[in-house]
Amino acid sequence: MKKKLIAGNWKMNGSLAANELLIKGLLAGVGQPVCNVAVCVPSVYLAQCHALLEGSVIELGVQDISSHESGAFTGEIAPAMLKEFGVHYAIVGHSERRQYHGETDEVVAAKAQRALSSGITPIVCVGETLAEREAGKTEEVVKRQLAAVIHANGHCISEIVVAYEPVWAIGTGLSATAEQAQQVHAVLRAQLKAATPSADRIKLLYGGSMNAANAASLLGQPDIDGGLIGGAALKAQDFLTIIAAAV
Ligand code: PGA
What we know:
Blueprint: E1 5-9, H1 16-30, E2 36-40, H2 46-53, E3 58-62, H3 79-84, E4 87-92, H4 95-100, H5 105-117, E5 121-126, H6 130-134, H7 138-153, E6 161-164, H8 178-195, E7 203-207, H9 215-219, E8 226-229, H10 236-245
Helix pairs in contact: 1-2, 1-10, 5-7, 7-8
């Protein structure tokens, strides 16, 4: 059976002291999980987190990646640099990057492409705003966002991870219900199936106020293959409870 993936998105949180405490707490409790586990940390802490996680079952990820290989792109971080610190995953197209940094579907697709060609697995985020949901546009929006990535990546698409993150559920404490999430995941799975015969092995994560209390019911849905977790990933015990629910 396909392993689930539980990925923490620390966002712009942490410090040398807090990271060490959190990672040591995770390592003390994680054991041999049946799912894959990753933490996507602020890039400035990669060296620290890489050293703390080396040889463990917890893989390292980042929250963004450049669509360029190298050169005159002030402030950007190249995939080859990330690889030097053992980075496995890069979140791409998180709604906060789309909203505050003007990332378009095309930019997101180019970042996913660059990650793939560098041997880093992109976690491609899609999701509708509350206004879009209320206007009945959920399906249209997520399909458009995913279509751009499929278009740019062709048969490599089977190597990506997709995260459905309804914008209205992120950081609000108001998670989508398991049924709401499954409904959208089924749409995304069908879209991926039309693009590649290997769609069944693509992991579809849910993100948006997933926590220790609701994880089991979300992760029990047939097309939910893991979670992208923000707030609850900053508390070792909560993140460990979610990992344990990913069977
Ligand atoms: P949240 O964030 O779990 O705090 O809602 C999820 C995310 O933005 O990836």
